[in-house]
User: Fold these one by one.
Assistant:
Number 1:
Amino acid sequence: PNPVVAGGMALIDRNFVEALDRKDHEAVAKMRHDVEQLAWTVHFGQVVTLEDTLKVIDIIYPIALMTCACRRSMLGLPDEDNFTCMGMGPGMYKWERWPETYRGGIQFLTPDEARDAVTKMNKRGLVQTLFTFGTPYIGGICNCDYPDCSAIRTTADYGIQFLWKGHHVARVDNELCNGCASCIHRCQFKALSFSATQNNAYIDPFQCFGCGLCATECPQDAITMVERTSLPALANVW
């Protein structure tokens, strides 16, 4: 595929994987740099909480539900069963110009319908992300999970900053946490674990991407989202 269209991910090919396998650190570093530079100028994303996603929906129009290109390529899902991405902005009125991108068509949503759809996807355990489509223009709300999402896989498996951490970090209140562990399976970024000794959930703040999936699942309201910049050690960890 065209690497510009793919936002740099098309540059992660066999050469990159082979360089990783033979521990050619210099080649890996160069290819990683090239991918990141292209992604940041064309197409990259940042994790956002459900609360912030709903605020975005309040200020943008139109919004349309569309098929997810990642799940199409990774899982081979038919387009009609794969409407999990949201395009936004006036460009959606011209979707017919790019039939390969919008295979399966689009479904325009009212703000209420969009809020309902993204809330249900959050409940399913999908991570909300905002993506640029021709930086600096934000053109989509994606609802991602590992390993379906190429952005999460690129970031988590190869250490390439295609997906930036969000503006929040999850924090556990050990006094409120009752050890039910209902949050553990929600984390896509390996930041959440369970301490059998303390009977508490534990969040690695340096690994946390700030999606808030653990917080929206917690029946005890023991997990809160705090501003990343309020924590000196994490203020520049994106």
Number 2:
Amino acid sequence: MHLSSVDDCTRIRTHREDGILTLTLDRPEHGNAVDDDLHSELAQVFALARADDSVRVVVLTGAGRSFCLGTESGVATPGIGAVVDTLLDLDQPLIAAVNGDAFGVGAVLATLADVAYVAASARIGAGDGPTARDDTAAVWPAIVGVNRAKFLVMNGETLAAAQAVECGLLHRAVPHGTALQAARDLARQWAAQPPAALQRTKAVLNRHVKAAVATALSTRPE
């Protein structure tokens, strides 16, 4: 599936307002789990947003009760590498509104955001199965360090929102139902700033994360 615009997405709902592009994973009946079509859209949507000069800030959230429950059972996606590459290449700031549970690829998306607000009732984890754990194993060491990532991923730990914030995976826990509003409030502040300065700061801060994740993904066993 080839997209020519973010507005062509069918698995991701888009909304534009005052320089803010909100992307909503839109499979609520499946916990926003990633199927082939959603994987394809995620692998393209951040590159399309990057190329859109009208977009100053991107907000990512999920429809319904979950943020993203990982890869849908029985779906053999080609891994998270293509999604992570385009996400990390996004020049504009990315804010995650983790409105509910996030596992596997969902946890990867949340933790790679520049800022992630998480509902206090949400749970975060590496997920079940080798692909889910490989995805988080490739990303989380760059976020929280190797030793902590080993414990979380190899044990299959499920964290409460407050624990995810405490260990550095996410940034701030907020009352249930308010994550998206918190993300939008920050997005409005950032959208009002000169975009070049904010993007330059993000690039400097993300440099070591991009290098570490790229190395981990390139050496991941098939």
Number 3:
Amino acid sequence: NSNGLADAGETIDYSFVVLNTGNVTLTGVSVDDPKAGSVTCDPTTLAPGESVTCTADAPYTVTEQDIIDGGVVNTATGNATTPEGVDPIIPPTDTETTPTPAAAAGLAIEKVASLNDANSNGLADAGETIDYSFVVLNTGNVTLTGVSVDDPKAGSVTCDPTTLAPGESVTCTADAPYTVTEQDIIDGGVVNTATGNATTPEGV
């Protein structure tokens, strides 16, 4: 999306420049990197002062956990074998952090009221019923669990599924219709407020 940040689902191509800084030839040059996975170096033998660019065999896919952690942090370790009689090298490391968007939880809710208008007058008369449903949308960039809706008029509300990935939505429905009362008539309408709830991942 050209925002300069590593969003979940985007990929990162890793490469590594390995330089022989000593005065003896090194063999079996390799790179270990938990994020990059398998890495290919060609050639694997470096004379003093020579370098090789090693490349990860596959791109790394940014995860939601990377977003929660605040960035894609990984450490690459170089390895090589020294000639016989030469002390082993101390494996050098290099850590790279690719910035991600800040982890942010967000929830939106839209209520739909469907009047069972027995006399077709377009008004909620006492004794008529209203079916309530609620569209709950995850507007953040982290997964939400335990999605639910509280509504004093609707009573018990069922949401299925109750886990929403970023951008996903669910339609929750009241388990029973609401029956319009005389007090609603006195109040001038059936007024109620629905509240959406959800649990954020640890660290958010």
Number 4:
Amino acid sequence: MAQASSRLFDNVGRMMNDAAGVADGVRREVESMVRAQAERFVMDMNLVKREDYDALRELVQTQGAELRALKAEVAALKGAGTGDTPPKP
């Protein structure tokens, strides 16, 4: 009788271990499906990539600085003029 109950407990233990393995496999499969669905959703939204955003932001900042420098140069040239401004059309 003791041997039968020991075998029963061994079988129950194996079944629980197998169930835990199956549950872990299901969890990984669900995570994979959710990740794939989220990636598809983001791709459908046509969002900009972070690298592209950073590159464009840097370009805009550089051009903004160049524009300010050119405006200052134009203002300095206008101030250095002789006062003779050509007539406006």
